[in-house]
Design brief:
The protein is α+β, with helices and mostly antiparallel strands. The chain folds into 2 domains: 6-285, Butyryl-CoA Dehydrogenase, subunit A, domain 2 (Beta Barrel); 295-468, Butyryl-CoA Dehydrogenase, subunit A, domain 3, CATH 1.20.140. The protein contains 17 helices and 14 strands. It has helices at residues 6-14, 37-50, 56-59, 80-97, 104-124, 128-142, 245-248, 283-320, 326-351, 365-390, 393-396, 400-403, 409-415, 424-438, 440-448, 453-462, 466-477; strands at residues 20-22, 25-27, 60-62, 69-71, 146-149, 172-177, 180-191, 198-201, 216-221, 227-231, 259-270, 274-277, 354-355, 361-362. It has a 6-stranded mixed beta sheet, with no helix packed on it. Strands 5-8-9-12 form a 4-stranded mixed beta sheet. Helix 4 (80-97) runs antiparallel to helix 9 (326-351), helix 9 (326-351) packs antiparallel against helix 10 and helix 10 packs antiparallel against helix 16 (453-462). The longest helix has 38 residues, at 283-320. The protein is globular. The mean pLDDT is 95. Bound molecules: iron/sulfur cluster and fe (iii) ion (FE). Iron/sulfur cluster binds next to helix 5 and helix 8.
């Protein structure tokens, strides 16, 4: 692992020259720019934990390619234990950052592409897996951060890629050369893109024969010619402009992952970095395996985040003198119960992992979809309870400017005090933390990250084994067995 800690990770980013825009201006230094720095710091935590005795076992792994110790974020899962360690690692990282630390997207992309490349080679006699292994060895040795680039803009959603008026609504090959291909298009909502080293481009959906040019998987550096990124705005991000640290709520880390548009304006991918090209029948597998891995994560990273939120609300109730109220304890109990229920599904889909033909392990896809789907409910319920317990002041309190103002500061301190021995400033700090963790951007990410709820419902129905369930019901009711109409894909 060439990059050994968070500081070296930040140094490594300074050597890259990605073209990034934010609020109409170019960002030259992602490590120190106030909009991107918090996200860099959360990703840096994935590097930092690997060097700490307490977490080394979770944060590192042994490469099945080289036998070297590597960051777990660059590892291909070799067994159920690997899947479980990933989940435990993500919860710890959620607890340490209170936000998205971004690096799982590339991690999941690596695992999806690895297992599918094996199967493509088996069918077509291609050498995608060998190419991928070479690239992955480089990623592991250097300890690089990879952004998994899947979500296309999709243009007119009533039409597939081949029928769009503007073909660039899906990333596609526009030119073929002897030494590689040139791609054009864009990827949206790219978590961690501006502070990654490499981009792993993958298709966004299952494709048919008419869309061969859209069936492209390949890797490019973030500063490859033709790549432009546009960093997204987040709720209250202007509070960071003057480093109003208390008002930010979580000064060191971002509200969510720090998402960007990545536009590919004729970007060249050399042959040795192409891992699928035209084999449309495998595109669905890449998308589905990536999505299942990522949906499994959400019951881990988000439970870590909700651990922080539960702690914040509990501490605030101590400051406010309500901690002993039975209704407060009951609501905190409910928050913990919901959180641990979510974590259970992350653990369950990992414990039920299975080996793909390549040897790379997959999570149980049904349970992974249930896990992410529950996040779209439970995280909102936990946030609702947190806001309920915190009180309306989290939306109305004065700013740090007033707290520090000579004329009115004493008024803020006086009227935002609580139980003696607690400082008004700490009440405000915790209030701001709760505001940041239950606000717009963070909660939207929980709803739509790793796929919107409907995407999970489709998979839950498809994998629901309804035919088998019907047979069970008929057997118990004494209805003679004859083949019933097939209603789902899995029996
Ligand atoms: Fe990782 Fe969670 Fe962020 Fe996805 S949302 S990249 S799983 S921390
Ligand atoms: Fe996410």
């Amino acid at each position: 692992m060439k990059i050994k800690n968070g500081a070296e990770y930040m140094e490594s980013l300074k050597k890259l020259k990605p073209r990034i825009y934010y609020k109409g201006e170019k960002i030259e230094d992602v490590v120190n720019h106030p909009a991107t720095a918090p996200h860099v710091r959360s990703a840096a935590m994935t590097y930092a934990l690997a060097g700490q005795d307490e977490y080394r076992d979770l944060a590192t792994a042994t490469s099945h390619l080289t036998g070297n110790v590597i960051s777990r974020f660059t590892h291909v899962h070799q067994n159920v234990e690997d899947l479980l360690k990933k989940i435990k690692l993500l919860r710890v990282l959620g607890q340490k950052t209170g936000t998205c630390f971004q690096r799982c997207v590339g991690f999941d992309g690596i695992n999806a592409v690895y297992s599918v490349a094996f199967e493509v080679d088996q069918k077509h006699g291609t050498d995608y897996l060998e190419r991928f292994k070479k690239w992955l060895t480089y990623i592991q040795d250097e300890n690089l951060m990879v952004v998994g680039a899947m979500t296309d803009p999709k243009g007119d959603r009533s039409k597939g890629p081949a029928d769009q008026t503007d073909p660039d609504q899906y990333v596609h090959v526009v030119e073929r050369r002897d030494d590689g291909v040139v791609i054009r298009g864009a990827k949206l909502h790219m978590t961690g893109a501006v502070n990654s080293h490499e981009i792993l481009v993958m298709p966004t959906t299952a494709l048919d024969e008419r869309s061969k040019d859209y069936a492209i998987v390949g890797a490019v550096p973030v500063d490859a010619p033709g790549i432009t990124m546009i960093f997204g705005r987040q709720a209250s991000d202007s509070r960071r402009d003057n480093l109003e640290r208390i008002d930010v709520g979580k000064p060191n880390f971002g509200a969510v992952g720090g998402e960007a548009v990545i536009a590919f304006d004729d970007v060249f991918i050399p042959n040795e970095r192409i891992f699928l090209d035209g084999e449309t029948e495998f595109t669905g597998d890449i998308v589905y395996r990536f999505a299942a891995h990522h949906r499994a994560n959400y019951g881990a990273c988000k439970t870590g985040v909700m651990d922080v939120l539960t702690g914040a609300v509990s501490y605030l109730s101590q400051i406010q003198g309500t901690a002993k109220g039975s209704h407060v304890r009951d609501k905190v109990t409910e928050m913990i119960h919901l959180n641990e229920t979510l974590y259970s599904s992350s653990i369950a889909c990992s414990a039920e992992g299975w080996p793909t033909p390549s040897g790379a392990y997959m999570v149980d896809t049904m349970l992974a979809n249930v896990c992410k789907h529950n996040v779209t409910r439970f995280h909102f319920e936990v946030a609702r309870l947190a806001i309920d317990l915190a009180g309306g002041f989290i939306a109305t309190m004065p700013s740090e400017y007033d707290l520090k103002n000579e004329e009115v500061g004493h008024l803020v301190k006086k009227y935002f005090s609580g139980v003696a021995d607690f400082r008004s400033e700490d009440r405000i700090k915790i209030g701001r933390l709760i505001e940041a963790m239950t606000g717009g951007t963070a909660m939207i990410e929980s709803m739509h990250g790793a796929g919107s709820p409907q995407a999970q419902r489709i998979m839950i129905f498809r994998e629901g084994g309804l035919d088998k369930k019907i047979k069970l019901a008929k057997a118990l009711a004494g209805i003679p067995s004859k083949e019933s109409k097939k209603v789902s894909d899995k029996t």
